[in-house]
Amino acid sequence: MEKETNNDRSLTEVPEICHTPDVPVVGAEKRVVLFIAILAGFITPFDGSAVNIALPVLGAEFRMDAIALSWVATAYLLSSALFLVPLGKIADIYGRKKIFLYGIAVFSLSSLVMTMVSSTEMLIGVRVIQGIGSAMIFGTGVAIVTSVFPPGERGKALGVYITAVYIGLSIGPLLGGAMTQYLGWRSIFFVNVPIGITAILLILWKIKGEWAECKGEKFDLTGSVIYGAAVVAVMYGFSVLPELKGAVLIAVGILGVIIFALYELRIPSPVLDITLLTKNRIFAFSNLSALINYSATFAVTFLLSLDLQYTKGFTPANAGSILIVQPIVMALVSPVAGRLSDRIEPRIVASVGMAFTALGLFLLIFLTETTPIRYLIVILIVLGIGFGLFSSPNTNAIMSSVDKKFYGVASGMNGTMRLLGQMLSMGIAMMIFAIIIGPVEITPEYYSRFVLSLHYAFILFTVFCIIGIFASLVRGKSRPASHASIPEKSKR
Description:
Helices cover 78% and strands 0% of the residues. The chain has 492 residues and is an all-alpha fold. The chain has 2 domains: 17-220 and 267-491, Up-down Bundle (Growth Hormone, Chain: A); 221-266. Helix 12 (281-310) packs antiparallel against helix 18 (447-473). The termini are close together.
């Protein structure tokens, strides 16, 4: 533990450069930091949920089939997943505020370009750039909030931050549906621009410090390339299943992950310290729980959006007004869950949330073309409670389990689990569409196959969440913040 103390002392010698949890930021600046994080945390989920509601309109304009439509979301998620961990490490080395600022700029600019796309290829290409900007935001946002707020306040602050994420999800379907219907789908991207500009101006004006606990450390480019190649192989392979090429790519990706882990263990400055996973039970199982939760839930909005507009004939605005129920409940529950996780074991709160989510997914298995909307609304409420109880306590557990010099990597890892889970969730939906429906537009003659696809997807997602309950429970009790998970070899 002496090594940890020495590190802390060296950081306090340069307070004008580095803020740390041990040198609290003053109250006014903490509030500004949280507000900026809220703005950034709002625009990326707003964009994703609004795009989901606009997919049928996009499909009609660009004549895309169901699988191509899925790639509008998948391209964004894949590029984000590729860069989250490397950018988290870069932020630890060069400054989290700097990378956070660049991320908002990239995301805002690419959102503006999205209003000008003229082809499917260009649309998906710009979504890739948006994903990189999102990775820069999410790879640093949680880390900055964790750096600023001490353990006794951290759960509450993370709960407020995640509430902003859920508000983005909430407004996305409703506002995105209305904007798509009355102003055109391009308007849902333009709204990100003024919000992004506001966040950039506030960062430049109000935030003078920086967070760079690994300043001077060498960046692991080779490990980052291996990691990126492995993620691409796994995710792209999953998207082309059940073709043989898909299985081969997944196998290559898994081999790449093994090579990456072995390489990281041998170098002095890895992009991801593998001992965070092998020596830190809380960190490992909390991230596994996040992966399972997002794998089981992300495609739900995508699938229900298509169901409401295709089989039930709702307009984008009306479909959005129904789907908004779930994120509104999430936004109401999340701050309460965050405060609870400061007082009660986060694993207990998160596990209860996972159980609610499993129940909601189980009830979705029984959807039909004639299911009453009130039944769907009840399910969305149950899912909203589950998501709200899970997310902020689980994030609190992850960030509180590591030493401050790993905050960027931990934030990136948490975001990577979220995005890989979302990719896996969309991959499952795409695979089921490919098997049951095929590469065709979803027209009335295919509605029965579409509903059958929903049943298979929700069965798999329910099984995932049941497994996730056990993964969440076995992570163990959270340790005191002062002993937060430095890898064992570092402690020695």
